[in-house]
Amino acid sequence: MTLTDAELERYSRQLVMPEWSGAAQERLRSARAMVIGAGALGCPAATYLVAAGIGRIGVVDDDEVELSNLHRQPLHLTPDVGARKAENAMVKLGFLNPEVVVEPFPARLEDLNAEALLTGADVVVDCSDSFATRYLVNDTCCSLGIPLVEAGVLGLFGLVLSIRPGESACYRCAFPVEPPAGSVPSCREAGVLGAIGGVLGSLQALEAIKLLTGVGEPLCDRVLQFEGATAAPTVIATRRRADCPACCDLVRPAPAAAATPERV
Ligand SMILES: [Zn+2]
Description:
- By secondary structure, the protein is α/β, with parallel strands linked by helices.
- It has a single domain, classed as Rossmann fold.
- Helices cover 33% and strands 17% of the residues.
- It has helices at residues 5-10, 12-15, 22-29, 42-52, 85-96, 114-118, 131-144, 171-174, 187-190, 194-213; strands spanning 32-36, 56-60, 101-105, 123-126, 148-154, 157-163, 222-227, 232-237.
- An eight-stranded mixed sheet has the order 3-2-1-4-5-6-7-8, sandwiched between helices.
- Residues 170, 172-173, 240-241, 244, 246-247 line the site of zinc ion.
């Protein structure tokens, strides 16, 4: 598998990076991502995955574009009000990079369809806007063994975490107590600045690219919190919980100590 002349030109500014390579580009091209939600996080996340040359991407969203979405969801433009978000995202992403196969899923991810929707993905990027969906995506990715990038935004604040099931802390390990429904205000109630979605959604694309290509070090066992008011990032270490109902039965890697020369 080699890159075409058009691909060499399209991706020339990342191919020239010392950290990147033709092999990394080909790994990205052979990968399939599923993006849950085509909103404030999903628009930038899908945009940068498609622009970078992911091979296939599915976009799951059952909403329609509303005027009040446009300040933070830049794949959806004023003439798109009333369109299905998943299908509109497919059109816009197709304009951006026709080399990528974009699959729209105009559905709400829920218990009955989560496994079917996520099976076959090489990475899942969770850009959903509810805690119930976030825990469901986490649990499904753990049971299917699919790497996952979680994020959330509200107001001027956001966080992001990468997960390799069975190797690093899952979302439920990091946040074991699911907030009761209605206890945390939604974007509709508390508001959100569009650029915060841009920051965190772009970080999700970066994390997914790192997980897929092996380039860089994903935010596994680390939660990155970003306070937009001061532009202050904080990285908080987390780790797997032995009693985590989502991932405790998954195989743990051999302890690092077993591989040290002293123990051989
Ligand atoms: Zn866990």
